[in-house]
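#structure-requests
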Amino acid sequence: YLFAGTVASNLRYGDPQADDERLWQALETAQARDFVEAMPEGLAAPIAQGGTNVSGGQRQRLAIARALVRRPEIFLFDDAFSALDLGTDVRLRAALRPLTRDAAVIVVAQRVSTIVDADPIVVLEDGTVAGIGTHEQLLATCPTYEEIVTSQLAAEDAA
């Protein structure tokens, strides 16, 4: 969620003492630096309550940057990549890897490409665990996961 204020004030909810360099580093990792630099006011650019003056993908990337500014021991990404195009999603996850290496990372996602490298992946169906394992293990042992993967691959091929 984004609050009324500026890009910088929203990021500093993660750490009020963070300097501008740390904010720019977080924006770079979150794949948000380019669009913030393109705003005439940069870090001082206004953000409306709820982030209604930026796109859904930009809101998600700013929220991720705020988490990176905080440097938590546990990251919880709850559908945090859903509004991102596939290319941005891939670049963002690659940039996050070194920064989250020593943290616990929990990703809630509906897009298989977002979690394919996770270990373990927990598949839920109707609120119960349908399978636990790596991508390869689940493809071999979990019909629900196989169905999800197959349907998403078919949808990507059709697009």
